[in-house]
Write a structure and sequence with these properties.
Layout lengths: L1 E5 L3 H12 L3 E6 L14 E4 L5 H6 L7 E4 L4 H13 L5 E6 L16 E4 H13 L5 E6 L4 E7 L20 E8 L2 E3 L12 E7 L3 H9 L10
Length: 227
């Protein structure tokens, strides 16, 4: 997979390093000469250019990219890069960094953004996750379909503890993506049994989040699963 990252600061370089370790091709673009630190990510391609200019994006061959990540420290720049990547080059996946939470409402499909990543939101989510078993934590917002990536740690008193995944009557517009159990990352097969302390990651419509939280967190009278 070929990925272009606009913004070669600490965030952009960190993302580049992770992607390179996973075998992807990465191009880092930044207009500041001081940001071009090839020795820090030597496996990446580097381009000294303004990612808000069409000529620069032509040089970056954005039409060949599978993913563009707008990771600068300026929300205006990230929005422009996202819009150009989607509308001018048809990049299939555009991920944008949100620096100021007040601007988060702008980062949607109208600006070409598929996934908006708010660092303050992620940090607060991690704090919430660390102290609140049983509470749903919203990690990422996907602009298409009004869906979110959400996490919930299954409490010991949950009625679903000990229930196979395939027997649970999940809410509509909800998909269990991953189960994190200690150091293990599990694919949620129908036969996999939910255990107390499991971290469950879902892609869910926002309108279903409360229903999902109720299903997982509360020990109820009567059955909570089908099958």
């Amino acid at each position: 997979m070929r990925v272009t990252i606009a913004g070669a600061g600490a965030v952009g370089r960190s993302i580049a390093g992770e992607l390179l370790e996973n075998g992807h091709e990465v191009l880092l673009v930044d207009k500041a000469p001081t940001a071009i630190s090839v020795e820090r990510v030597p496996q990446a391609e580097w381009l000294l250019a303004d990612a808000c200019e069409i000529t620069s994006l032509d040089e970056a061959a954005l039409q060949r990219c599978n993913v563009v990540i707008a990771a600068t420290g300026d929300d205006k720049v990230n929005l422009v890069v996202s819009l150009l990547a989607k509308t001018e080059y048809g990049v299939p996946r555009v991920v944008a960094r949100v620096n100021n939470p007040k601007n988060e409402w702008l980062f949607n499909e109208s600006w070409g953004v598929d996934v908006a990543v708010s660092t303050p939101r992620l940090m607060s989510a991690l704090v919430e996750e660390a102290v609140s078993v049983g509470d749903l934590v919203r990690l990422l917002r996907f602009s298409h379909g009004d869906a979110n990536l959400v996490e919930l740690t299954l409490p010991p008193e949950s009625a679903l503890a000990g229930t196979p995944v395939g027997d649970v009557a999940w809410p509509e517009d909800t998909s269990l993506v991953t189960i994190i159990r200690g150091p293990r990352v599990l694919t949620p097969h129908d036969e996999e049994t939910l255990e107390p302390g499991d971290e469950l990651l879902f892609v869910a419509a926002q309108a279903r989040e409360e229903q999902l939280e109720d299903l997982l967190s509360v020990r109820r009278e009567g059955p909570t699963a089908t099958g």
